[in-house]
Amino acid sequence: MPCATFRANRAEDEYPLMKIGLFIPCYIDAFYPDAGIATLELLEKLEQDVEYPLDQTCCGQPMGNSGCNSDAAAAEALFVRNFAKYDKIVMPSGSCTHHVRDNFDAIPQTDEVRHVRENTYELVEFLHDILKVDAFPWAEFNHTVGLHNSCGTLRALRTASMSELGEKPFSKPMDLLSKVKGISFATPKRPDECCGFGGTFSVTEEAVSARMGVDKVRDHHQAGAEYIVSADSSCIMHQQGCAERAGVPIRFIHIAQILNGASQ
Amino acid sequence: MSDKPVNHARAAEHFIEDAPHLQFHDERLWDMRQKRDAQMHILPEWQELREEASRIKEHTLSRLPEYLEQFETNAKKNGIHVHWARDGTEHNRIVGEILKAHNARNLIKSKSMVTEECDMRPYLAKQGVTVTETDLGERIQQLDDQLPSHIVVPAVHKLTADVAKIFAKDYHTDPNIRDPHLLAEAQRQAARPVILHADAGMTGGNFVVAETGTFVVCTNEGNADLSATVPNLHIATIGIERLVPRMADMGVFIRLLSRSALGSPITQYTTHFRGPQKGGEMHVVLVDNGRAARLGMEDFWTSLKCIRCGACMNTCPVYRRSGGLSYGAVYSGPIGAIIDPTFNERKYSTLPYASTLNGSCTNVCPVKINIHEQLYKWRRVLVQHHEMPFVKREIMHMAGKLMGQPKMYRAAIKATEVSLSTMPRFVLYNWLNPWGKHRENPHPVKQTFNDWYRKNRETAAKPAAAPETKK
What we know:
Chain A is α/β, with parallel strands linked by helices. Chain A has 14 helices and eight strands. In chain A, the strands form two sheets. Chain A has a four-stranded parallel beta sheet with strand order 2-1-3-4, sandwiched between helices. In chain A, strands 6-5-7-8 form a four-stranded parallel beta sheet. In chain B, the strands form two sheets. A six-stranded parallel beta sheet of chain B has the order 1-10-7-4-2-3, with helices on both faces. Chain B has a four-stranded mixed beta sheet with strand order 8-5-6-9. At the A-B interface, helix 2, helix 3, helix 4, helix 5 and helix 9 of A face helix 1, helix 2, helix 17, helix 18 and helix 19 of B. Chain B: This is Lactate utilization protein.
């Protein structure tokens, strides 16, 4: 039982028992279900009490980011109905977490809404800061990966140091990935550069978006990465589309899948 | 001026099609960003400097009228004529009158974004005044009849060959010159006689110091100093937001400006203008042109802190891949996208969308303007003011409704999966699908996460307690 190894390093009462609501963003639900399954299984391996409310849709981000904030109200209200009862809400997406935490204001800010906003975590943050996981004994990934930090995780959630600020280097996703057996890392020339997804930007500014995506995947490929790993499937969806069209031989995987023990 | 919204996306697409220009532009600006980073790493107090600069600017802006009057009083004591221009029209009239009073027909000028805002050159041309730009990049843009594409390096979107072609037309040099030094020399030879025989000189001003009644101009080519001192008449056009209270504040800004802009410790020339030279005249035209109104905008007033270093442009992955001209405005890049809509909301309504909201601009800004958050806020304002194209607005409206209704939403997801796996390729990748123009669609899956969960977790969570609202 892998959990035993995990438990061996921890005191039983190190964190309170939590009821966790799992949010699976629309594009993961529809296009990357394996990333969602890995997130759930990983949290279960870590002995978390996780539930996935079936009637969930979207956090409201696409409407909010487009400036159509009033149109985000229905999604935000549903989100609160689904998740208010949980102690913590966890999602394998930096940009959705950013929306809930920083921009989720199309609906009145009741106590319930504030509870939801204050207790929503991106998966890496949750593993690193709340559970403080120090081992993934079940995980082995014998490949060279390039880490793509989405701008949401990097500059909004600040899960890693930002090159523009010259701060002391740190990286929560790298901390976690480093605990995986067999993994090695490739460093692209412009690790912090946005990949160009940007939500509706990917369609309204199609040419720039796709160009940024191609440049991004080539940068990783030239650095020697076999896989691009990210905590955001939206960036992956875009980059994968660009890589496939441009013929850049590189594969994509969500960080949850590697931490959950995927071998490829 | 036409109010038709700028089509940034199309202009950017055009820019991207030209591979050599795109690659040079991206790499040149990225190199500037990296040089900026290197300077930042040398100074352990970098973040404190940014904080201090931001604080000084916010303080000054909060008491702008007082400091402006203090500057006026002290500048007059120094023998400087001070003029106030409400907008571009007033500015141009004032400059025109000063030139007329001196019977000046030849004006040499250094870079000034404010004169671009005011569209001054065509106005003076009609008055029979010949205006010659003395900044190399700005001169190239003038000869090519284009706006500056970058606020610090105005011709950065051009290759050496482009410049050679332009100079060949105007200076009759060899169009095949590929040595930038030879082109710079050609400009020098062409400009020097014009400078020596000019009747008046014009500069901008990077900083205005209230307590001393002086102003500071920072350049790398020395052309501002020639423009200001060779003729006896010096006119400086300066935006009212360029004030700092004390001379002691200058240290903070001078240390930040060129490091942020080009990654050099300081500009080659940092000139403090303290009054007219012997026998000469000095005029300062303080220009509002929308600034006072911007100061009253709760979410956007801090954009007035900008010291025009261009660091946000250099780091912007969208700007680097679309070029400054694609913004169709005097100010391009991230800072342009938050300033331009204050000049004309409809025309520049597309610019806040020319961003992925990645936030790198905010991080490099030496005066800590929250640029990407202002871009986000502008989108809200523009939608409230009905400046979003109807179709896009409707799509968002429908999407918003759908996202509130789980059952309809599930049906829509299913339809998407079915169409992705059954539609022929020519249907999936046509002009109706901008996503698929340069990218493959995501692959259809056997089952969604939602389906998987229903099948694989017996104690599946119950639907939300409250009934879903039908609209």
